[in-house]
Design goal:
Length: 339
């Protein structure tokens, strides 16, 4: 199949675009705005270049900035791949590509796409995509609300909680809380209108650490991983996808550094999973037993919590993939009482 392989370096406002000549060479096509108008301008140029060939976009995940273009490309029947940035970086280093500019990053992605058979990205089902948008809006509002409350507390600490600033903060906090309540109601209505989402959430809530507050973001994550891997992804791959995979640093007999996690993917999701595991280990369940077994073996508590987050996510993926409920007897930890 004749394919035009395109590397796109995505930022908040711009797209730097390059086309692969082969796996070692690429040429720059230009810079476009990361907007609907920019997408259309890019499409006109690419379709002239392609002359009937299949267009394949290679982009790194950039916290969601790449998704509007990915959706636009999918609607035009282009292929889209979102490779792991760490793999791209390691490959580029092995090829002697160490310079970093937006233009060079686009060329690097184009060559990487030419050199590798990459999985094809697929958009989320519409109901899941809408749920993801609602959850993102809720989080944005909650973050702003917390900022306003912090400002309010600072004024109170300074004994300056009066006057137009205080009034403005009170009004802002009231409006934000109403907006959050409205989004919460919309989320609940959306889930009620889609029984498949409701049933998936119900099953996930049988996993230790997953409850009412965190189940829907985790459900969206699992849908994204399932869509990316056609529901054939591994638990190891999923933990790497969110950046919870361990990265030991050892060399010879003398160099030993503390193990780190890769920190790829969405940091907000990693934080959610970490605190979910923290809550989950407080109950009498297999996750608590797993955590205490690691601590008893001498692992630092923070490391044990990260491992617990990986374990919880792995269980969640199996539940989601197999459409079953959590069974403690399948984990190898029968949840004995831990005092």
């Amino acid at each position: 199949m004749n394919t035009l392989t395109i590397g796109v370096d995505v930022s908040l406002k711009t797209l730097d675009v390059a086309v692969a000549i082969d796996s070692e060479r690429a040429t720059t096509l230009g810079r476009f705005t990361n907007s609907e108008a920019g997408f259309k301008e890019l499409a006109a140029k690419l379709e002239r270049e392609a002359q009937g060939a299949t267009i394949h976009l290679i982009m790194e995940p950039t916290g969601g900035y790449e998704l509007p273009l990915a959706q636009f490309a999918s609607e035009r029947q282009w292929l889209v791949s979102l490779p792991n940035p760490r793999k791209v970086k390691d490959w580029a280093s092995s090829q002697g590509r160490r310079a970093k500019t937006d233009r060079q990053d686009a060329q690097k992605l184009a060559c990487y796409g030419k050199a590798h058979a990459l999985p094809i990205w697929q958009p989320l089902p519409p109901a899941v995509a809408e749920l993801e948008a609602l959850l993102a809006r809720r989080k944005d509002l909650e973050d702003i609300l917390q900022q306003e409350r912090n400002r309010q507390q600072a004024l109170q600490a300074q004994a300056a909680f009066k006057g137009p600033v205080a009034t403005s903060l009170e009004q802002s906090i009231g409006w934000l809380q109403q907006a959050i309540d409205a989004v919460e109601a919309a989320i609940q209505q959306h889930v009620d209108e889609h029984p498949d989402l409701r049933d998936q959430a119900r099953r996930l809530r049988t996993v230790p650490g997953i409850g009412r507050r965190n189940v829907l973001p985790i459900l969206v994550l699992l849908h994204r991983w399932g869509t990316l891997t056609k529901n054939q992804g591994t638990t190891r791959g999923l933990t790497a996808f969110v950046g919870l995979d361990p990265q030991p640093f050892e060399s010879g007999s003398s160099i030993r550094k503390p193990a780190m996690i890769s920190r790829q993917g969405n940091p907000a999701m990693r934080s959610l999973l970490y605190f979910s595991a923290l809550g989950g280990t407080r109950g009498n369940n297999p996750l608590r037993h797993f955590y205490h077994r690691l601590v008893a073996a001498g692992k630092p508590k923070k490391l044990a919590l990260i491992a617990s987050a990986r374990k919880m996510l792995s269980w969640a993926w199996v539940i989601f993939r197999d459409q079953t409920v959590f069974d403690p007897s399948r984990t190898g930890f029968l949840a004995p009482t831990v005092s």
